[in-house]
Amino acid sequence: MNTPHPELEELAGLIDDLGDNAGDGRAAVGAAVGAERADVRPSDVEAHVAGCARCTADLAALRGVRATLRALPPVPMPDDVAQRIETALRQAAVTAGDADSAAAETPPTAAISVLPAAGSSRRSARRASSTGLPNFSVAAAVTVLLVIALGVGLGVALKNGGDSNKGSSTSGAAASDAGSIVTASGTDYTQSDIQTQVAGLLLARVPDAHAAYKGLAPLAAAQSSAGAEPSAPAAAGSAGAGAGAAGGASTPKPTASSTVESAPSAGGAQRPVLQSRTPYSGPLGAPAQLQACVQALLDQPATPVLVDYAYYAGKPATIIVLKDPADPSTLDVYVEADTADCAKAGDVTFVAFIRNAS
Amino acid sequence: MTGAPDDAELLRRHLNGDPDAFAELVRGHRDHLWAVAVRTLGNPDDAADAVQDALISAMRHAGSFRGDAQVGTWLHRIVVNACLDRLRRRAAHPTTSLPDDEHAGGVSIAPSSRDEFDERDTAADVHAALATLSADQRAAIVLVDIEGYPVDQVAAILEVPTGTVKSRCARGRAKLVPLLAHLRGAESGNPPPSGGVQPPTTAPREDLR
Q1: Which residues in B lie closer than 8 A to residue A227 (C-beta atoms)?
Q2: Bridge partners for A200 per DSSP
Q3: Are the beta carbons of A186 and A273 closer than 8 angstroms?
Q4: Which residue of chain A comes nearest to B26, CA vs CA?
Q5: Mind listing the pLDDT tens digit for each residue in B33-88?
Q6: Best mutation site among A24, A89, A208 for testing chain B: the one with the most B CBs within 10 Å?
Q7: For the whole model, what pTM was predicted?
Q8: CA spacing 20 to 30 A to A158: which of A95, A192, A283, A337?
Q9: Looking at the partner chain, which of A64, A85, A98 has a beta carbon nearest the beta carbon of B184?
């Protein structure tokens, strides 16, 4: 046959199908080549190789390479590495039942400047209107707007809600374009760390949060004192794309605070993880209530990016993360104390923004 | 080897708050994940970092794991992606030394069994040769030719078509031929009549579950 010598690469492709059983692989050669090189019929290449000393030698060399590779001895994970990883996983599991507490242990990297609430339109109005938050030591924060120099815009507003329902998955707040992540992380959010805490939770739970909200990354980078690469979450994020909506399968981790990994000089960043609540608990537990609350906050219906029935300053509160209607790259995080009545009064305890750095 | 239900069950337990479940899940896969990482990166230190980061990330994202993939495939994907990220970063910052030569013959990669010298030399040569491949080719070669995963599983791990896996392998093998010819000089120099070379180990090491 006058077929040209196949390229070495092409021959190399043959041994995929020849596998290790070169002897009975002739038919497979044809199939492989036919699939990958339409212009040459299988039989041509097969015939060529069979009758060509050079190609036969090449093929043998390729098989030799493959055999060499396959013959490499196994490399079990060394014990020290296995131990180290297991420890890291346990710590992460303990401190981050839902990765939210991973955020909790994060030192706040962003410089946070507390500004008078005047800045933000609707929210500030509501905030100003909010009255009693007797239970919150943060009550003063009612009219506080946190502006973070970092990435995403996170606005945090404290409020309260209706009462409890149960549910285990999304939907809390309305029809979803992308769907909400509804969880009960048990995180105790604090005024100083909420941006970091929320960022950690978002990155862990919201598919593609990394890409969608660039401001999260800097926060997340600071989040893992253990030195996790920022790229790692991204990798996993893409792997687990979709489906985040079912976040409701919350991980109840009544973690004792003592087990929390200590972040060196994280200082106030570290907070004990309180007992997990149930998703859809508290005044905003009913999806309808949550919807009404969101409506009240934004003057328009919206699907929260994330809802966490958790704690703020040690008090039960619902953390609602919404895309800022005016700036999709900014996330506003509202904190509704269970003692407030979001839907009715629209009163916001406080709002914090993490603006997109870029 | 543990069956698929076990992995799925462990994942479920993890999502239900069992703090040990994920570590247990990982235990069943760690040697495979390690082999892939250390061979792709050529360096035990990097591999340990990559695997750890990847697994923690996987644990945190477990809630978004879709049941349409095998748990093992998913874990491999995350680890491989972490490794590829590192390789690319390394390529972008060449100041970071390519530690292949330095580590390839090291304890962590080479076996401590008999034939240690031969095996160690071979492992060192192979790892040095692998370092010349592109990251994508390297990952494909490691998964298909070294670890013995079926092409379609590798395609699932890498999230590329099987044809892409094959072409990456083919290109990689072609590049490796001149680099590794000396290791199996007999075979490459003397093409066997018709039966071809029978590699010593034929079965894939282990299927992903």
Answers
A1: 49, 53
A2: none
A3: yes
A4: A86
A5: 999 999 999 889 999 999 999 998 888 888 777 766 788 999 999 999 999 988 88
A6: A89
A7: 0.47
A8: A95
A9: A64
